[in-house]
Amino acid sequence: TSYAAGLAKAYTGGGFTDWFLPSEDELDAIYWLRATINATAIANGGSNLASDIYWSSTEVNSNNAVRFNFSNTSVGGSDKFTKYRVRAIRAFTF
Known about the structure:
The protein has 94 residues and is of the alpha+beta class. It contains three helices and three strands. It has a three-stranded antiparallel beta sheet, covered by helices on one side.
């Protein structure tokens, strides 16, 4: 669990065990729906999305993965050893 996907998979919030790390596209959708997601999260004992950088499950190559910046919507590859936030999700429907 010392890596982003492992942390998301090990999460058991709400008593659920089917959490996973969102993809780059899922994080993009989460960004645009963040007001609704934040309201729902707070109503259920969770927390708001931070204006910070989050890991996605999308890999660039064996050493890099895609990160999504919630303060300016920039997306790019970063070394997998860089520390960014992780936001686990359970299901995603567009």
